[in-house]
Each structure stands twice: as structure tokens, then as C-alpha cells.
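Researcher: We're reviewing a set of sequences before deciding which ones to prioritize for further study. For each one, I'd like a predicted 3D structure that I can look through quickly. This is CPBP family intramembrane metalloprotease. If possible, include the structure in C-alpha cell form so it fits the rest of the review sheet.
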Amino acid sequence: MKIKILIISLSIIIFSNLLVMLSILKMHLPYTISMFIFTLLSLLLWFFLLKKDVPLSIKNIDHGTFKASLLLIIITSSLSVFMIATSEVVNYNHIVLMLITAVLVAVYEEIIFRGIGLGSFLSSGISPLRAILLSSVIFSLFHIGYVASIGLDIILLFMNTFMMGFILGTIYYKTKNILLIIVIHFLWDFAVFINQKLPTVEIGTVTTIILFVTTILYFTWSARKVRLSSHLVN
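Model: Here's the predicted structure for CPBP family intramembrane metalloprotease, in C-alpha cell form for your review sheet.
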């Protein structure tokens, strides 16, 4: 049963992400439409294949982790408001598109990588640390496909997505609340999307540094927290 959960969950992740990449690269569908279609597809696959084994809860909460996670919510939401307010040219059509894309990406990726992926690893008996590490590596590998160039960009993307995967995985493990990490993922992506569209280089540099430092600090905290939990479990 444990092997079955792992195989099904990995199959859902691989199948869904391959379809997303194929729809963008071969069918030339917009990213937002692809995310919408495969968010629904992923939910259907999870519902029929894994619902009994890996429930997606939004009720449970670890109050300590929730309070610490408010740091990410406050920083990313504040940066988004600041960047929009200080931008010389505010294109509201772009902002709406980025909002929709950030929501769809957050829902899709959290259900796939944390709800189905990490959830199945934890249900199969793998230690919390190994489960979070494995899901973070898978999360990073599937993002590499969106980088056109080979070299430093891939290394930086892998490191960034690995840290974010580990952070979100830790929050999900400690809270068992899929909605909380969807909100954090959405705010983080939205801040990054706006940052990429900023005409002001100075503001973009400052926000990038703030996001990077926040990621490092929270990654260090979450890594320590999950290690302690793994030692207690073992």
C-alpha cells in the first residue's frame, strides 16, 4: 500500500507537469489557461486515486508555525503594495493577469507538490525530513524545464525553488493546512511577478534582496524545526 501511494503520487506529478509543459511549448497555450486546466485535472486525479490515502486538510493548524509564517505573508504582501504604489507606470491589465496567474500557480503547485507529493510521502512512512527533502527536489526539478538557458540560471533557479519547496513543505508538515501554504505561495509569486515587470531597477534590486534574505532566514528556521521533529519521530 505504501509503494502504491508513492507510485500514484509521482505519476500524478509527472503526468500533470508534462502536460503543462507540452501545452505551453507545443500547443502554445497561455500559461494562465494551462494552469487552470491542469489544476482541475490534478484535483480530479487526486480525488479518484488518492483521496482516501492523502486527504487535503484546511482545518488543522500548528499555531507556532502559523505565527512564524505571518512573517512571509506580511513581507511579501507589503512588498507587492509598495512596488505597485511606487511604480512609475501602473498597468492594471498586467496586474490583474499576474494576480490570476499567481493564484492558479499557487493552487496547482501546492496541491501537486505538497498535498499529493509530500502528503503521500508522509503517509507512506518516510521520515518527515526525508519526505520534505524529496518533495523539494522534485519541486525544483520540474521548474528547471521553464529555463531556456543552461548554466548559472538553472543553478540559481534550483536553489531558489528548493528553498521555497522546503519552506512550504515544512509549513504543510507542521500545520497540515493546504490553504495556508497556497496563500503564502500566491503572495510570494505575485511579489516576484511584479518585481520582474518593474521599470525601476533600484526598486527591483532592493525587493530582490529583501525576498532573498527572507528566504534564507525562513529556510534556516524551517530546516532546524523539521530536523528537531524528525529526531523526535525517530
